Amino acid sequence: MKTPPLPNLADPIARRWLMFVVVSAILLAAVVGFAGAVAERRATVDLSRQAQASATLHAAVLRSELAKHRSLPFILAQDPDVAEVLRSGDPQGLAAMNRKLETLSGGTSAAVIYVLNARGMTIAASNWREPTSFVGSDYSFRPYFKEAKADGAAELFALGTVSRRPGLFMSRRVEGPQGLLGVVVVKVEFEALEAEWSAAEPAFAADPRGVILVTSVPAWRFSTLNPLPRPEQQRLRAEHRFGDAPFEVLKASPLPVAGHAPTLTSISPPDQGENRYMAASADLGAVGWTVYTLTPVGAALRTAISGARAIALLAGLATCAVAAALLRWRGQATVRAARQEAARLELEARVQERTAELRQTNQRLTVEIEERRRVEAHVHVMQDELVQSNKLATLGQIAAGVAHEINQPVAAIRAYADNAAAFLDRSDDKTAKANLGLISGLTERIGLITDELRAFARKSSAPAAPVALREAVDGALLLVGPRLRQQGVRVIRDEADEAARVMAERFRLEQVLVNLLQNALEALDGHADPEIRVQVSVKRSQVRILVADNGPGVAPEAAKTLFTPFATTKPRGLGLGLVISRDIVAEFGGELSLEAGPGGARFLMSLPKARS
Q1: Which of 216, 227, 246, 533 could form a disulfide with 198 if both were Cys (CB 3.0 to 4.6 A apart)?
Q2: How far is CA 540 from CA 440, 465, 500, 610, 611, in A?
């Protein structure tokens, strides 16, 4: 058989390579452009997030600075020394007050603290030693004096009439028995804060009118974000608040509204060669100011776009190189395709086989997981039942004592009722009512005991929540009270920190306390001068409850297996009380342990403190 001549492949190959070059150039351009757009969008989102975080941080710092100083005029307004100086005007008292204000100013970093009398005249000031002392100056024209005099408190940002330095004036009215005595004023300056801001991106705080008050760019101070009406400008100048400020509008557009997402902003003229920023804002709260930060975006966007385009170009060139190699090997495509097809079929068969195995394995795992979940659910149910059984067993131990505790008021009720009937027969209504009142008190006592028993016996699985520790301790002592009195055990409580609130569930916490108290009572059985101490202490975020007795203590061998299930030293004990108690405390996020100490057993329970 004669072999047919090979066709001329030069033209088709040339056309194929020409098409490959054209398509590769178009795809490279599209990929590079798309990568740049995606990088710009992602960088913008990152800058927006960064700018908002920066604005929030700046606002928090400024809010903290204001809060630190806002309490100072309030405290001074309540100071009896200030009221006495305003009433008497004693020269020695004024000298002492000057020194006191000087010390306070240095300790709190306030720019100046001064006291005005009812006429607005300064009688004492922290800068009394300086040439610019406020002593003797009349500030009755200042709005912060007028507003504090009328409303009790005022805040005003303004230039100082003597120092010509901007700051926030916080004032408080000082009351006397006959009414107004004067006004206490604290001036806060923000130079240190502005210096910290200037180390990062531009930032400033504006009042509700849009006047820039605190800024890292001094040239922007008293500029406005929006044009101020001329009457408003004249009023501000008449109040000597901002000196001769021209109230020029800061050419930054647009700026975000407080609470809205950051926006790209342009500043004209450019600041330090940069005119594009990511502007973010944060509301300062009650003072009414808004904090703005301007994060430069030019360099960041250029870097992100250039890097993405370079990576996309390199990836595209690598892809084109691979495609060119594949195109070059196209001549051997028939044999390679046949081999690849056979390999593909074989691979598919293996994949199908492996997939079937994996599917079977997955089904088995699903069954095992479901079985494990059922077992875990059953374990949780059994654990809850075990806790409830322990609670009921404990309740059974204290039932006899509680029955005796209830029997006494019941007998008394019977006697008082018989007496009341006799007094009614004698028409002695007053004495009969007194007996009925005693019966009411006794029934209330019985109700308190039975309510505590019913609540203690109730099955509870509520999540941990803030619980008043004193209520839990009182409930536990109420339940074991009869046995305490029967054995003559003295209970010593350190109630200083019992007002603390812990994260727990009250009745399960009572169950733990009752278990610990029961153990202590059993240890003290037959002991001379028995004593149980319940001590509560608060350390940072933890509340520690110590239950200790002066009994024989826990033997070292028993201490090793104290929290091991079914390990017990009691003749009729199951060895589960402490194990269940520790599990309950662990559910609350705490820890129960035996603490080494002199004499007796000391059990320490640590619980997380509830946030107020």
Answers
A1: 216
A2: 44, 18, 12, 11, 11
